[in-house]
Every structure is written in structure tokens, then in C-alpha cells.
Amino acid sequence: MVRRLRYVLIAIPLVIVAAWSAYTGALVHTFAAGERATAVVESCSLGGSTNGRRTSGSCQGTWRTEGGETGRGEIYNLNVREAAGDTVRVRIGPLGPYAGGWDRAWIMPVVSGGFILLALIAYIAVLRWKKVFHRLKLAESIAGESGGLIVTEAGARRSDGAPHVLVRRLEAPPPGHRRLDLPGRTERHDELAGPGRTVFQSVLDADERPLMILEHRSDRKLNPETVLLDPSGAPTMLVRRVGEREFRLLDPAGTELGSARPPGRARVPTLEVRDADGNRVAVTVGKRTGWLLRTEVDAPPPLRDAALVLALVQNRTAY
What we know:
The chain is an alpha+beta fold and about 325 residues long.
């Protein structure tokens, strides 16, 4: 149902633009290659209101083409106040006989095109605002949930202000540290100010007991990545950036456990964390004061940790 609605929303402006293009194209064809004819304008009406419906003025007449064919009906692109009784040159195209050339005919395509352009701009703005509004409502709902987390570079706290985890910087690799290097790291396309570096952080619970260690790698020419280590220094997962706000979640053997990427284009930054089967396990939404994190209750512990780490690294300016 959602996909069908999306197709309808895309089709509406396409149909409008296609109709305008077809009309304008028919006029261009008429004046450039339409069959030449001579028309006699028999009568013109100024238009008005009939049974509550307003009608525009029109002219009726007959015409004969250069090939000798004749016709009768409405003749377009005439001044209805002055054309009655005139003999005029016309071009016959897909829409019928048109007189006067582009001197009068350009007004309708240009004016209607302007209105269509303004309508499309307003239409796109409304659709984009709906996306932004949805993200803002999502952020608001996460902030009000008992299980929602507010994540900053210093750690994460619950919506009631109680600390959830604390983050402390380590000056050196932890004892027992084992480096994890997996193939497939991609080049970064932005410019990192200064040389690349590796930073270690310790993630503690509210009682300051160690939960895990983070090894952030921000090499100058490569996309950054973060290795999750257990308190003994053994790697448990790799969070690897593969594009702007797109990540792969890998176990130490290189098997993909999940991924994270924005759900769509929106001015409010958002990441959805999904498992290897594509099921959403967490969502994090950016705000000025940090990132808001909601994790599904049935999310596997490794992916819960990965979602928290993803929210943490979004706050790192040099990542």
C-alpha cells in the first residue's frame, strides 16, 4: 500500500508535466509543420456564463487546405472581438486549425508552464516537509520513551536523565589489545583535516564498569571504521563506513551481521540499523544536542551494541 501511494505521488506531477509537454509540442508542430489552409471566420462568441459554468470565447468558420480539402469547426488563436468575417491564413495540426502564429499562441504555454512550475515546487516542498515532519515526530517519540536513549559524545542517558553508559578516552591501547584488519575498506571522498589517527575509548555502564572498548580509525585516505572490543581487548565486531552515513556491520571473520543507512532523503539525519535479513533492529535520529536512539526489544545484543556505537560515532567531528 505504501509503495503504491509512493508511485501515485510520483505519477501525479509526471502526468501534469507530460500533458503540458504534449500540448506545447502539438502547438510547435502545428506552427512549424502543420498543413497550410485559408479560413473564413463566420462568427465569434465572447464567452460568458452558462448554467453556472464559465466558457471562453471562440470563433467558428470554414477552411480549405492547399490540397483542396475543406473543413468546418472552431478556429483557434483569434481575437474573438475582431475576427468575425475575416479571411485568415491558418495551420492545421493535431489540435485543429490555428491562426496568427506564435504572436498570440505563446501566452498559454508560458503562463500555464509558470503555474505548473510553481505548483510542482509547492508539491515537492509539501512532500519534503512531510518527510522532515515524520523524522521530527520520530525524534520526539524516541525522546519521550522510557527505553529511548539520548546519545552524545560523552555517553548515553535515558529520557528521564539517568545515565545509561559513559564514554572515557584511553591514552593507549588496552592491555591484551588484538588488532582486527578485514579486507574491503573503501577510499573516502571527503577531505580529512590533518593526518589520520586511531583513538581508543572505553564504554562504561552507569556504575562505571567496563562494557566494551572502541577503536576508532580515521585514516586520511580511507573511510573510517570502529572496532568493538570486549574488556579483554578481543575484537567482537567491526562497524565500517562504506559511504556517507552508510555502514556495514561485520563480525571478526568478515561475515556481515547487518547494515545501517538513512531510510530516505530528509533534512533530519536518520540511520536505520538492520540485521542481515533486512529486519530493522534500531533507529537513531540526529538533533542539535546529540542523537536519539531507539532499539527494538528483540534486537540481538551484538546489534544493540552496534546501534549504540553508530549513534556515538555520529557525534565525532573527526570521524
